[in-house]
Amino acid sequence: MERVTRLRATAVFLLFALILGLFGFRMYQLQIRDADTQSSSLSTYTTWSRVTAARGEILDRNGNVLVTNRASYNLVFNNYVFYNSDSPNESLRKLVNLLSENKIAYVEHFPVTLEKPYEYTMEDLSSTWQSYFKDFLNYRELDSDISAAQLMKQLRSAYRIPNTFTEEEARRVIGLRYELELRSDLTSLSAYTLIEDVSSENLSAILELNTPGLSVESSTVREYATKYAAHILGFTGQMTAEEYEVYKDQDYSMDAYVGKSGFEGAFEEYLHGTDGVKLTTVDADGNIVSEYFTREPKAGANVETTIDLEIQIAAEKALEEVILNLRENGVGSHGEGTDAEGGAVVAIDVKTGEVLACASYPTYDPATYYQDYNQLLETDFGPLNNRALTLTYAPGSVFKMAVTIAAINNGTISSGTTIEDQGVYTKYEDYQPQCLIYTNYKQTHGVINVMQALAVSCNYYFYEAGNRTGMPAIDQVAKALGLGEKTGVELFERQGYRSNRETKEELYPNDPDHSGWYDADTLQLSIGQGENRFTPMQLAVYTAALANRGARYRATFLSRVISSDYQELLVDNQPEILSTCDISDDAYYAYTRGMRMAVSDPSGTVYSYLNDYPVAVAAKTGTAQHGGPGSDNASFVCYAPYDDPQIAIAVFVEKGAQGGNLANVAKAIMDAYFNQAAQPNTEIPGENVGS
């Protein structure tokens, strides 16, 4: 019996020892063996961040950089380090106070006003950010119709914002806590970028605070390499809610910068690169444990435009000089033009439609566009207007080549048909317009043919020629030559309209007295007045089409697109004919000879400006009424060389008084163009991409 008892006691002891051993082994596992693993998983945190790809560069046709990138720095929060720090709210309070005191802008999407009475600002957010806010309310189990004031009260309590914080401090801290919480618990958003492109001065001040989790990351921002071509280079900006709806399917981040206007907007698809994705693992102290890309950023492609920077500079300087000289001295015997306002000039390659220069005056510095914007809005003569593409004008007498073609093609006149200028056109009793020379000097041009009429710009001749021909034939030719039609250029442009029956019905839908077509309308149409409204870009395309004997090329700013490393040709833009105008031999002879005589004949309207120019030029001047007070508008078109056209130019100046003076702008452009042509070709075969 005693032996059995001892055996049982031994068995119980062994069982107890076994249980104790198993328990000890498990404790060893938990406390010793797994300690490193648990510590590692709890003391490190991995976040992902979007690494913005550099935009491609914008170049001129010769490889001169127009827009590029410069290095910049962003301040980015790491949630894990922030939440594991001591007194996180106090750290944020110091940070927001510094930002507020120094008026440093930062990114925040919390949709509540900064000051009482608190109100929602949901309309300022994209639909996606609005959705995030709704998810936030749901996550915090807050009613979707909670008032902004009640939400502030709830969040101040939830985030344990001390009562010692002012209302403004609390609101600003809550805004940052909201951004951090979205990224910690609710969304797949990348790390919170507090400030982009922070200045070195502000960066130093902010880093002195040692805000937990706030670190510096390198990036790039847009930089202009020239102060010229502001109206066509365009600018970038953070996308709007509407733009995000367009770009979100193209893997754009919600805070991406996109092209807003000009080349930046037109060539966005090429310039915008593919952002990278970086995973960063840090410990509680913010030390980086590991860092690698799951997707490398890919820079955007480089866009080589058709613009020639040297010609563009010459165009802008000459246009400014002519307008300022007009304001100071006027022109002509009566000193008109002292009220000159703005103007535009466009130069086009006749054989391709490539735009060599496109300038508006007054202009601005693209590098300070955002800083100067409000001031520019208040500046006289509208420097923000891209007059070359977005403003339309009556062309005046530069329209007469279209009338010449229509009249000769229709057989109503020939190049040899003479008409006597009688000063006052008396065919109709109720409308008797005068030739300009008769209005100003009570003189006439006498008996002249169409070439002479073009050279001296005789309105009387074209009243009669247009009246014989009629509006439909003239309108058909003007349309084929591109007037009142889109030029096909990549930037936004106004289409304008031609003076015809349809235009009048559209402009005067409820006014039967004006919407009909009358004989007076035909007479006004014939000298480029009436309801004709064209852009300077259209006038340049029209002039190039005249030089090409009716072949109208699509105007373009795009030469080619090259990979970011300049090794691969991605797009090679080719000339495209948009329309053709059938021009008879006699009509072609008449208008080309007439335009040449405007320069070479002593009575020609451009003789004193371009007669001695070393390259033969064909040109036409125009003066156009605009229905307002002050001097008439002025227009000028030309192409050169006369016997082998290469470049076409159109100049327009609001209240410029007379077109001949604008030849000085064209002359400066041709100087730059033909001086380049005279230079030896130093290009090494095979050196260029795509050669």
Shape: elongated
Q: What is the β-strand count?
A: 21
Helix coverage percent: 40-55%
Query: Mean pLDDT, as a whole number?
Result: 89
Ends distance: 109 Å
Number of DSSP helices? Answer: 27
Strand percent estimate: 15-25%
Largest sheet: 7 strands, mixed
> C-alpha Rg, in Å?
36 Å
Which structural class do you get from the secondary structure elements? alpha+beta
Low-confidence stretches at least 5 residues in length (pLDDT < 50)? 1-5, 22-41, 682-691
Structure description:
- With 691 residues, the chain is an alpha+beta fold.
- 40% of the residues lie in helices and 18% in strands.
- It contains 27 helices and 21 strands.
- Strands 2, 3, 4, 5, 10, 16 and 17 form a seven-stranded mixed beta sheet that branches. Strands 12-11-21-20-19 form a five-stranded antiparallel beta sheet. Strands 1-8-9 form a three-stranded antiparallel beta sheet.
- Strand 19 (618-624) and strand 20 form a beta hairpin.
- Helix 16 crosses helix 19 (459-469), helix 16 (400-409) packs across helix 20 (471-480) and helix 19 packs across helix 23 (519-525).
- The N and C termini lie far apart (109 Å).
- 43% of the residues are buried.
- The model is unreliable at 1-5, 22-41 and 682-691 (pLDDT under 50).
